[in-house]
Amino acid sequence: MTHATSRPDGLPDFRNPPLNEVVLGVQFSPVKGYQQIYAGEVWNLFKPEYPQVQEMPPLAPEFETFGLSSPSAKINLVTGAAHDRFWFLTSTGDELIQFQHDRLLHNWRKVGDETNPYPRFEAMLDRFRSELGKLQAYMAAFSKPALAITQCEVSYINHIDVDSSRVADWLRFASFTNEPDDFALNFRQVIRDKEGRPSARFNCEAATGMKSGNRQTIVLTLSVRGAPNGPEIDSALDFVTSGRNVIVSRFAELTTDFAHEKWERIK
Amino acid sequence: MISTGASKVSYLPERPNIARRLLIEPNSFAWQDAAVARLEELVRLEKGWDGYSASPVSLANAAFALQMLEVICGVDSAPPQIVPGFEGDLQIEWHTLKGDVELHVKAPNDVHAWRFDCEGGAEEELDLRNDFLVAAQWVNEVSEHPIAFAAAAA
Amino acid sequence: MPLQPPPHDHNGEVVPHDHDGINVADGIIRRISPQHLIYDEKSGGMKISSAAFNPSSGPNGGMSVDLQAQIEEAGLSATQYVTSPPWLGSVRFTAGSLRAEGYQVGFDPLADNPYHGEVWGLFTKSRQRRLKQLCIWFVPIPGASI
User: Fold this and answer.
1) Higher per-residue pLDDT: C33 or B20
2) Which of B52, B96, B102 sits opposite C50 (nearest CB)?
3) What is the number of structural domains in chain C?
């Protein structure tokens, strides 16, 4: 399968969705010979568009596995010689690349007064493809094959302004007789391929929060994670594209008609 | 769940000044503590620990192995034994009165599974990626208190 | 007699070969780390894991060994030489028994181990178990069987 560069026809669409952040990401086997001292050279690959940098603690390796039960363990990695995670940001901070020795992610997010428009998935995917290509070409100097991708993820993070309305007004899967002051819940589902084999995991997390101006918010995070069919970039982008399609479909299923009207559903 | 989102992050606690460690939460099964401790030991092995030129187990392989065990082992599963490979890989083994199971984690999504059943004398080998339902069945069969297995579980 | 240098590829790596200077009865020693001991309920004791008999990766990867005859020709004690670090055990094959199983036994001297050799061939699970049957303890690990 080749990853789509145009939006599938039947996919739900909204004129004004509560989308706050989108993340596309891959995890790859650490490249032999690469060391953190070279991180500045990696930044140089992206600096013209991403002139700002921040340092963050690293992310632990993550793998979706399938079997008798769903994995419950959270793995935190503590090491005396970790490669930090670097954020390379645009001048406005609305898009960023996250890089560490075994990860590359591309985020778009709302910033400031939150009027910056979402560039849409297809445009983000094109950028991510280009960024992966640059990183692969750079890493090829150390080792071949340069990037052996082991995991992919795509996440859509929505901030639903709820004011004084009920949770059930927005989410089909959460209904309370006595409206709680706050809540946090999550569920997961295995995604299967045409042969019925597990291929990825869909995660839904919903929790209340407060945004600036004392705005009551539900943060609804929908993610798809798993291993691509192959270790190369094209397979990763296929996974991310399929994941996006699952997320958008589930978003429409999990939210109410009332919500869809507020968000101006057009498909 | 550790998030990779820029706005929603789960920051790590302050890093102690020690060699590599894996922290896992929550520890709900008995085998987990021992498995985590063993994996921590293996990622800290010195280069040449085998008397030749072996490398320690890689962090990625250790993390993958732990996620694999999570979906293979139940509450009453026989505890796994973990031995290092020579190139950052590792092997997870069970050797009970009922049989043997060996899972060679060569790399994330690249596991060679082997088992021997003492009762029937049957031997089987498979290459697995990230679906370990078959391996879970094998481990269940060699464990002392096998559970009624739901074939559709994932 | 010192062994002839082994063949190398264009990258300078030793290529798999069967060295005719290594005789049939020569001892081929494989160091065994206590990291490779596992408990087997069937025998009720510790045994060597099959993982101890894996080759290294790479196109020319083989299973590292020490060549007993070469160590002793240099006037060294083989048992002392292979017990490094001091907590290692080791097992012994003969070159002939390995060759009879289809393996190549070659010479691969290293800067820090001039008596280093390699065994090339198939290392499937059944072949690993067969290797365990072929060898005997050279420097036993107390309390462990092969």
Assistant:
1) C33
2) B102
3) 1
| Residue C132 is assigned to a structural domain of this protein | yes
Residue C105 belongs to domain spanning: 28-141
**Residue C136 lies inside a defined structural domain of this protein:** yes
- Centre a 10 Å sphere on the Cβ of residue A83 and count the other Cβ atoms it contains: 17
Contact state of A74 with B2 under an 8 Å Cβ cutoff: yes
- CB-based contact (8 Å) between B133 and chain A? yes
Give the other-Cβ count within 10 Å of A234's Cβ. Answer: 16
Residue numbers in chain A where pLDDT is lower than 70: 1-5, 71-81
pLDDT tens for A126-147 read 999 999 999 999 999 998 878 9
d(CA B82, CA B70): 14
How far apart CA B23 and CA A71 sit, in angstroms, is: 15
C22 falls within a domain: no
Chain B partners within 8 Å of C56 (Cβ): 53, 86-87
B6-45 per-position pLDDT tens digit: 333 322 223 333 334 555 555 567 788 889 999 999 999 9
Q: E strands along chain A, which residues? A: 19-28, 52-56, 74-78, 85-89, 95-100, 103-109, 149-161, 184-192, 198-211, 215-226
ipTM for the whole complex: 0.91
Q: Which of helix, strand or coil describes residue C68?
A: helix
What is the rounded distance in angstroms from the CA atom of residue A62 to the CA atom of residue A53? 24
Binary contact (B154, A98; C-beta < 8 A): no
Establish if C10 belongs to a structural domain: no
